[in-house]
Amino acid sequence: MSKYNKVNLSDAMLQRGKSPSPVGAGNNVSPLVPPVSEMAMMLTLDQVKPNPDNPRKSRNPRYDDIKASIRARGLDSIPKVTRDPEGEDVYIFSDGGNTRYQILSELWQETGEDRFYRIQTIVKPWPGRLKCLIGHLAENEVRGDLTYIDKALGIRNARTIQEEQLGKSVALRELSDLLNQEGYPIHYSSISRMEDTLKYLYPNMPDLLDSGLSRGQVVSILTLRSAAEKTWSQYEIVRDESPDFGGVFGATCSAFNNPDSYSFEMFRDELIGQLLKALPHPSLNYDRWLIELDPKEQQRREMFGEPPAPPVVTPVKATLSSLSPGTEETRLPPQPDDKVHITGLRSGTLTGAGNRPEPVPDNNAEVDVPTLPAALQSLTDGSQVRPANRTETQPDLYGGPAVFSGESGVQSALNDINLFSALSDPLDESGRQPSSYVSSVAFAATGLEPVTDIWHIPALQDDIEHLQDMAYRLAFELAEAMGCEDSIHEDKAPQAAGYNASAQSSNEFVLFLAGMTGNLPKQPFNMFMFCLNFFGSHVISDQPVFADEHVVKVMRLIRVLRRLRELQRDAAKGGSDEL
User: Fold this and answer.
1) Does the predicted TM-score (pTM) go above 0.70?
2) Cα separation of 529 and 534, whole Å?
3) CB atoms within 10 A of CB 230
4) Does domain 33-146 match CATH 3.40.50.300?
5) Do 330 and 318 form a contact (C-beta atoms < 8 A)?
6) Helix 215-235 vs helix 188-196: angle between axes, to the nearest 10 degrees?
């Protein structure tokens, strides 16, 4: 046997370091000296605790997988720890490892196995509180499992620590430069968005953000807020009792604090509804708010400026020639073309071409009349002026435009009155709605998708994405009226109708909505009984189920889907979806 005692290296490594023995009664035990370089050390769970500045506040999404791996194989990676010389006599994790510590603690309590109690670590010199926090941020950034709100809170904490160390406030650019120098690259604009998140969103919807709302979803809400506040400031009328924008936006955020009920589209619609109530301005209806909050429209305005004002028809000077009693004739000045083209933007106008009347000398008083052919004057303004060569006028018994006998040019113009002009609201000579006019379907201007005009689609919403949104809101609202809204789901695929409905449903109305998307029902349904929902019958008990506003919205849904399919066909054959 060797003269040297055998030493059990494993037991020796597991022993804690010892302090020098006291020399005299008045001497104290010397404190532990912090290491000057990284060194390996075996520590127990009692000697280690999580870093108090750990940016992760929510549960690691891979927690269960990591725990299963450590239970089966032990701790593969060696965590780095450090000790604050001015803090407690314990080690804290300097570059991640807090989740593994929590798992080891649970396994030690569950199994009592020593391999979970003792941890092989690497002790590094104390880098400072700020560098420890940045180390945790960088370590989580590599794995990509830190939620956006945890990252925002962590960077806010880093800014606070730096300001405490410097004794002054730190600008976002300074903080960005520091984080970049420490190996955590982030642009100051990203930090600014995080600050806005903590200022405007987190106080009102903490549960939603803590559930893991992504950066893209948060940016969409912030963009929506910025556009809404800009429009609000343009139309706000400051009064003593008027609500402020921050209160309206905060109340909307609080209403969507539940992760299970949040949807960006529903959030936007609810915000518009609250804005309409808080800021009842005549220029701000639902469609106008929808355009103002559209990111594509904001980008277009940044590139090309504000949209031009609607065109106004400029009156020209014309003469009235005195003819035989009871007869009047409108004469227009000479035109450069042989044809006069009329293009109708909305209802009340015609699309076509008429022959230009021959010019006559200006020998009478001047009056203002629109630049329209005389043959079509009575079709647009209801006046009694008519050409002398027409001898018969047949007024329409149902309030439509009058019918003239005579040349084929007028008949051609009358044939151009299409479904567009029949289902739209009239405009005056300047291209605007008369101030005294009330839409015949104004009673349907309620709900998720208010309808004031069945046929007209605003130019800024005449694209596939907007039409899909409109179709989904209309279909959902109609299904909600029939008690089958759970069967309607949003579908924003390029060739989708904006929504989908189950073609295997037993509900007749769901099958009807599914058929409108092109998804043919698997089973037929009683079309006669279904039509009674719309029309009713002469029997007293067969009253229509649909209210008038829902019938109008069905017609509007048909119009929206027709236009959507037209744009999708153009896109499929290489055309443009913006006509």
Assistant:
1) no
2) 10
3) 13
4) no
5) yes
6) 70
